[in-house]
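Listing 4. Sequential folding, example run.
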Amino acid sequence: MSQVKRVRGGQLLAQALHEKGIEHVFTLAGGFCNPALEGFMECQIPVINCPHEQVAGHLADGHARLTRRPTVCLVGPEGFANAVPSIMEAWGERSPVIFVTGSSTLRRSGAGGFKEIDDVAIAAPLTKYSASITDGERIGEFVDRAYKIALSGYPGPVHLSVPVDIMFSSFDAAAGGEERPFQRAHRPAAKAWPDPDELEPLLARIARASRPVLIGGHGVWWSGAEAQLEAAGRELHIPVFNIPYHQKLLGEDCAAYMGLADIHQYPPSAFALHESDVAIMVGGRLDNQMNFGNPPLFPESTALVCVNGSHDELELNRAADNLLLSDPAAFLDALRTLKTRGQWTLDRAWFDLNRDKRRAWVEQTLAELEADSGEKIHPLQLSLDVQAALGENDWLVFDGGNTHFWSEIAVNVAGWQGRKLAGILHPGAFSMLGVGVSFAVSAKNRHPDANVVLISGDGAFLSGGLSIEVAFQENRPIVVVIDNNGGLDCISQQQERLFDSGRHFATDFRDIPFHTMFEGLGGHGELVERREQLGPALQRALASGKTACLNVKAKGVISPIVLATTNKRDKASIE
């Protein structure tokens, strides 16, 4: 009689995730998680050990954004508390990360067990699903449920808590396999198909528009529908905008792409939205970024249409004039049929007018930049010069407050000039500082032959710079360009306009030699004090083959969106 094979609960967890096709696990290895780590080793799933649990979460998030597939962040109970900020960042971008906590013993739950924390309750408002596995025989079931929830409808992070007694206890290696579903491999998520009775009247309304605009949200990215968005804009001559902060959908060099739907970072969007007769927001939310669908961002005269792939999104978009439950790709394909059906008569006049507005804005922006004087480099110029060194297969990441906002402006300007990049990563809806290094390492991990450059504010780097060790450890060389203005400039600039004294307070840093930090870790570092030094220094950094830092002495210049936060007349569109 053959003996039944027994394995630890952590190994069952690893097997269940392996069955789903999980490619990477990010962790800070801890005793509570050792059985799972043994399982990942046996399943040959690569595990990246990180210097901090928040770093592990951001790396998992970055990997999920790039692959559009779930990844795993594994932490211990106290590490879960460290990982909470990364859960929030993933929640803001709806990134399908599976956060797994090796938690305190189930047998003594509620009695003050070793490192006991109510991780399930803490994670609940920041995830689509948060649960504790209370029976080792059901580990596969819980993983299957969490995985499918992470991808279904509107994707997002999920959380599983695995008590240490279940993690270490032994179970039948085939536990749970006798129940359906017998096959638990990855399957594409179900998508919502538009109701023809709702779709056709909406298409007829859009077909009558003379000044339509398309606004893409990150639902387009998770649907894999960015090609359809570009085609709809190009074929139907509809200007396309991107919701601020969220996943970049189209390259800035795309003819149909105009810029962010943000009246501060891209002022021509104010003209487009104010003059539009139909605004079609696909895969986005009427949150604070979109002024909750209200004037002055969306005039009362504009018909506001929201198309979303889940009921949850539609409920958040109740302010829209027209709502449609539909996968973004399915709707955009249907929208494009208006032309083949002979129902689309719009000419290029409105489209070309918006392109003219973009051209004029680019010319004005460059003229103002050229007129700027001073020894230190302007943050907008910094970002433009960095992009000039990159090719169409390279990745750009940015992180920070003013640094982030100036870089958003720079990619639009450079895109109009024909600059092509493979992709862009940046903080999501919460504008969290410190994600840049992790996202840059994620891009390099997925595209090892590409150059990956991060432009980070000094405050942002101080928030998450410890994650640079992963680049050295995993031999994933990236270049970090630090916009060093000596403090939390985004905040100090606001203070100087808000405080009666006209001064700033508690926002300054000492003169930090970031470049020597990289040299000490075994990388390449240079101090850049003038603009003419930047280009050659960047070429040397890229050629070094090492993880590198350019410590750039930059000018503190308030960005348009930060300036708007101190202007009560503009606050309604950003708060």
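-- end of first protein; second protein begins --
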Amino acid sequence: MFLKGRYKHLKRYRQIARVLFKYGFSEIADRLGLPSRLRLGRRQRRAEEEVRKVSYPVRFRMALEELGPTFIKLGQVLSMRSFLIPPELASELSKLQDEVAPAPFEEIRRVVEGELGGPISSFFSDFSDEPIGSASLAQAHPALTRDGEDVVVKVQRPGVEEIVKVDLEILMDIAKLAERYIPESGRYDPTGVVRELAKTTRRELNFRNEARNVEIFSRNFSGFDGVYIPRVYWDLSSTKVLTLEKIKGIKISDLEAIRASGIDPKDLAITGARAVLKQIFEDGFFHADPHPGNLFVLEGGVIAPVDFGMVGRLDERMKEELADVAFYIVQKDVDGIVRTLIRLGTLPEDADVRSFGADVADLVDRYYGLSLGRVDVKEVLQEGYELVRRYKLRVQPSWMLLGRALGTYEEVGRMLHPDFDLLTMARPYVRKLVRERFGIKRGLRELVGMADDLRKLARVLPYDLERTLGKAARGELGVELRHMGLERFIDELDKASNRLAFALVVAALIVGSALVLQLNRGPFLFGYPAFGVLGFLFAGILGIWLLIAILRSGRM
């Protein structure tokens, strides 16, 4: 089947195709073969005149917003891949607003009572029917527990899980069609983007994941002054309901209120930087959406982050990779940087390694030796993204989240203090990471690991070699060849042959009916041989049917 679940979700497929046409993306829809696959007529494929006057990044954002929650999340994922998509498109997608009209409170009540197992009054002494925030996946309501504690209850919107499930299936189908029929889309890794979207969205739909994230942050910052993590009310939470302690503080972007409360914004910037560097270099677990709306300031200059749905993780191997790159940058060893990137598999096999090395050297030369206070992290990241885009480097999602988070952290820090310098504060953490990476203990650990790997290899290699040689001797070894891009040609050829056969049948009916009329033998209908009249009538119906099918396909 050319579209997984095509018949099951045909209405949604057609809606998506119409939105693409509406916002002027007919070329994409045509190349994917959607009009013929979904039997869309010409009227359904017209772009609105007013929309055509708008730039394509704005039109793309508008299309995603109209298509709903899953597509809004897709835009947010793409905006974090600013090294893959054009900068103007990434900038526009970053404006995507995941804010929608709230669901009726009665529907929210049913979700809460169904998840917690009883009437709201059994769990909360007060539950506001007016949300303080409403997004496409969930909305948040202030409430009061039976013990009189202020909380915020995040409730999943009714039916959103099924909507997301259907959209993810359709998006994967479209991504596969794009890779098959639009070769240049391969640089954007459509199926990879959809897999990442599916992973993050499904994780967001299970609120227990966010609750666990909060608990991890709470443990990591248990002995850290200056950061407060809200409490999770596990007995009032489930997969679709999350109850957290309500944070009563000042938004970190409200500098006037911060100064009025006697807090120095510069101290806040330093506290925030320490917290960020601890998350990255020590914990390997960081808040990946640190925009000002998710950061509050409490009494005494304590920072309280909220919304823990999007987090990033750096395992030990990734920390080692970070240490390798940092070490070679400090040594100004461009060859070392390039070798590391090749070893990580980020550089395509057909890439021009010499040109890539020259561009890396140019980037290092421009910033090497500058005082860290004169280096703009976001500017360096943008230049790095340009290299990734130019050489089609493959970057892991965690590195993308880290780059986005670092850029946002620095923006917040400089908003609090214009001379804020995240890189200067990061220097001792990087040195420590490099020391650990090249320390004697780490070297001994790696030698033991290599010895164990060699032992395992020595045990399985003879058996694997024997199997391979045995298959070769029996003539069972073979080479599999896969054709790319022929499916659409075969599909179109099949359609053309079917139409040709259909036309031959119509022609045969016409010729046969004419011969019957010439014989002038009964039975008669309206004074003419009945079989001849019926044959012409049937041929006319089939001919009109064939003509309509050709017109609807848009290929006359």
